[in-house]
Amino acid sequence: MDQAEILRDMKRMEERMNNGDDARSARTGRNAVTRVVAITSGKGGVGKTNIAANLTYLLAAEGKQALLLDADAGLANVDVILGITPQYNLCHVLRGETSIDKTIVSGPGGMMILPAASGIQEMTDLSRGQKLTLLDTLDGFEKPLDFMVIDTGAGIAGNVIYFNMCADEIIVVVTPEPTSLTDAYALIKVLYQRQAARRFRILVNMVRDGGDAQAVHRRLSNAVDHFLSLTVEYLGFIPFDENVHRSIKEQRLIVELFPTSAASRHIVGIARKILQEKAVTSDNGTIKFFKRAVIGDNDR
Ligand SMILES: Nc1ncnc2c1ncn2[C@@H]1O[C@H](COP(=O)(O)OP(=O)(O)OP(=O)(O)O)[C@@H](O)[C@H]1O
Ligand SMILES: [Mg+2]
What we know:
By secondary structure, the protein is α/β, with parallel strands linked by helices.
């Protein structure tokens, strides 16, 4: 990163700060708290995208303004899961080719989706300038948001860490597979060292029952507690259910297509839990989104 780039970023930061929170809140009506929730995992293929999409749908169905941010720039698949073919994606926004309002699409139940670009190399490791553009862009979105659900990629690569750093709440999805646990541990450790969210929660997917899920959580939380002196809460579980696969094949959400299936009932329970609890944010979600992300960029 050269000096000119640093100066340009600093100038943009200055401008944002000088514009002030009040002016922005008045313009966007965004004085409410936006809960920024990341759905993440150490290992890939554990069910993040399915969970993120269904949760966002359920939050929207409850009358919340809920946006699903597809942050898995490597191989994005929110659009595939939902059977939509968006005209624009995050990549176009970051290149300045279109606006955020034209890029965000409506999904089922009134949920909003900010699609990612699939398999585009430049999107797999966002530069500092691109991250700032993204934050500017989200700030410029006119609708006040109650929830921003971020479907991150898997692992501990730059973008995954970055998007988790943006969140107030991090939901780590694990399965009973041993590698899923060790990879989750590695991710939590990196995020903890980077001082990410105050709230880490474990969601156990593809298990037989609650007993198995609690055992998985216990194994992970014992390690995290022992080595990091950190508590990871148990959020709940979603049983292994063939209907998940069937709904994905149909490009529909399971909670819409098979609302009484075991997996749907558990996803609904988790959405209820999230809706009932108080947000952990104490300040304006959007402003914090900005600050956190910048902090996340300051190698510390
Ligand atoms: N509860 C479940 N029961 C049965 N199959 C499931 C369940 N949850 C997810 N799956 C299956 O696991 C696969 C991966 O799901 P998904 O794409 O949501 O994972 P992911 O974590 O987003 O993957 P990636 O890391 O590649 O982005 C899908 O084929 C889906 O059908
Ligand atoms: Mg995914």
